[in-house]
UniProtKB/TrEMBL annotation:
<dbReference type="InterPro" id="IPR044651">
    <property type="entry name" value="OTSB-like"/>
</dbReference>
<dbReference type="GO" id="GO:0005992">
    <property type="term" value="P:trehalose biosynthetic process"/>
</dbReference>
<keyword id="KW-0378">Hydrolase</keyword>
<dbReference type="InterPro" id="IPR023214">
    <property type="entry name" value="HAD_sf"/>
</dbReference>
<dbReference type="Pfam" id="PF02358">
    <property type="entry name" value="Trehalose_PPase"/>
</dbReference>
<protein>
    <recommendedName>
        <fullName>Trehalose 6-phosphate phosphatase</fullName>
        <ecNumber>3.1.3.12</ecNumber>
    </recommendedName>
</protein>
<dbReference type="GO" id="GO:0004805">
    <property type="term" value="F:trehalose-phosphatase activity"/>
</dbReference>
<comment type="similarity">
    <text>Belongs to the trehalose phosphatase family.</text>
</comment>
<comment type="pathway">
    <text>Glycan biosynthesis; trehalose biosynthesis.</text>
</comment>
<dbReference type="InterPro" id="IPR003337">
    <property type="entry name" value="Trehalose_PPase"/>
</dbReference>
<dbReference type="InterPro" id="IPR006379">
    <property type="entry name" value="HAD-SF_hydro_IIB"/>
</dbReference>
<comment type="function">
    <text>Removes the phosphate from trehalose 6-phosphate to produce free trehalose.</text>
</comment>
<dbReference type="InterPro" id="IPR036412">
    <property type="entry name" value="HAD-like_sf"/>
</dbReference>
Amino acid sequence: MDLKSNHSSPVFTDPVHLSKSRLGLPSNIAPYSTAAQPYSSSGLCLQIPRRKVGKLDDVRASGWLDAMKSSSPPRKKLSKDLISESQSDETDAAYLTWMISCPSALNSFHIITTYAKCKSVVLFLDYDGTLSPIVDNPDAAFMSTAMRAAVKKAAKCFPTAIISGRSRDKVYEFVRLSELCYAGSHGMDIMGPLRESEYVGDHPDCIRTTDEQGKEVHLFQPASEFVPMINEVYKSLLDITKNIIGVKVENNKFCVSVHYRNVDEKMWEEVGKHVFDLLKDFSRLQVTHGRKVLEVRPVIDWNKGKAVEFLLESLGLSHRDDILPIYIGDDRTDEDAFKVLRDCNRGFGILVSTVPKETNAFYSLRDPSEVQEFLKSLVRWKNSASSQTEGSTATV
Ligand SMILES: [Mg+2]
């Protein structure tokens, strides 16, 4: 199923509480204009209404097998041996046409940095398919040493957070950088800096704890009540899919991922049937689609977009006019974050994709290697801007 053409979230259709446009992007950075929404401080990000129990999501209502297929496009074959020249030309032409509305962040780098000149960049990064390649075995989605170095340098220059569908512990195991904030389970498990804020510190789902280095932090888990239910579903899914070759069921603490990238396509229907049949008994859980993965998640109004708002608040940046949040991700779940940034006209999303997609992102990058190049370019730009400022100060 394609994303809706009106740029709304593919799954969560609840209106997003948006901040007033204080960072209006100039027309040369925004491929198309956005409408600013009224600001409501009371409706920032920490009100988490439970959605109406039993409401079918749009994916479920419109045919889950079609959704499984359309949300799992084949990886683009770059070899001329595997794709004819005319097909290749056609694919490239479609991609180039798409890039008119979603230009390359590398090619547009000078525009981005011109706009970022008087602002503080804040980086939000997805993990799978963004920092690491999509691989057959989800447990082997390691990031390269070069990518880790690029992320580490970026995090020294800019506040940086990783927001992943994986469990927070799992994504930390992959990344192993203490300089970052981590949000796992699609933002339902956020560890961020300690901050005295009525929105963060006083929230019932937020507790003080210590991180791996013994530093005091806030831990925000808006779906904590769902953990026993998620564990039960995880065990059931393990059992009922055990005879399907290639299925991988992953417990991400606040959600369960059912990976089918190694399953014969003829068996996808059976995978989906097992998942959706089981979920009939769990009206407080829903299924969303990622790249060859079904995600079983609590029915709460929380997603990666809300996690971005929460992290900005945690970092003490949400009310600053001089920040430029940039979110880089490849998945449909990242669209919620792209949408938040687009709708509140505050920063922008960058979609990682080798194929044209309907998206709320402003810019695109083809693959993790381009993400790495973009991060390195940002660091070079920041360091050169800082040294120029120091130089001009020294000559005054
Ligand atoms: Mg991803």
